[in-house]
Amino acid sequence: MILPIVAYGHQVLKKKAIDITKDYPEFNTLLENMFDTMYNASGVGLAAPQIGLPIRLFLVDTTPFSEDEDLTADEQKALNGFKRVFINAKITKEEGEEWAFNEGCLSIPDVREDVFRKSNVTIEYLDENFEKHTESFDGLIARVIQHEYDHIEGVLFTDKLSSLKKRLIKGKLVNISKGKINVDYRMRFPDQKKKR
């Protein structure tokens, strides 16, 4: 089932999310719905706060990035089919050179800005079977993980922008929070009671 994505301005997007256990209600259905919702909106990642749930859960599928002709064959291969579920994740290390990449977010449609992030990340997490992993990632995979991880920490990519950039996009953000935007996927806006 495709769920509405909550828009910029919703309080759930600014909350630090809480851990879950393997008896979380209808967990497999939730995962299925989150993947359906992400694919429907042409996303490469989706965090539970983006569908209104303040829990430490996000998923990624970087396959769409693998079609970027500017990437090396090795980079394309790494991105193609990289699909993961991250539960109760904790980034333990961010290192390497900081680099800029033009990021967007399903909760902040039509806003894209360069964000600087470290190139390598080490993360502890549980997979969809609640088995523990500690892994390191780099490049675009690390970036997608860092972006989604920020969501479960109550941080948006716009929080990482300079004060000048924030002022320049303020009008767009206000319009998004009021629902004054056209998107081709379902969204729920802060001032609306009913789902769109």
TrEMBL record:
Q: How is the cofactor bound?
A: Binds 1 Fe(2+) ion.
Q: Which domain of life is it from?
A: Bacteria
Q: Which reaction does it catalyse?
A: N-terminal N-formyl-L-methionyl-[peptide] + H2O = N-terminal L-methionyl-[peptide] + formate
Q: Which UniProt keywords apply?
A: Hydrolase, Iron, Metal-binding, Protein biosynthesis
Tell me the Pfam families matching this sequence: Pep_deformylase
Q: Name one GO molecular function term.
A: metal ion binding
Q: Do you know which InterPro entries this protein is assigned to?
A: Peptide_deformylase, Peptide_deformylase_sf
Q: Per the similarity annotation, which family is this?
A: Belongs to the polypeptide deformylase family.
What is the name of the protein in this document? Peptide deformylase
> Which organism does this sequence originate in?
Flavivirga aquatica
Gene that this sequence comes from: def
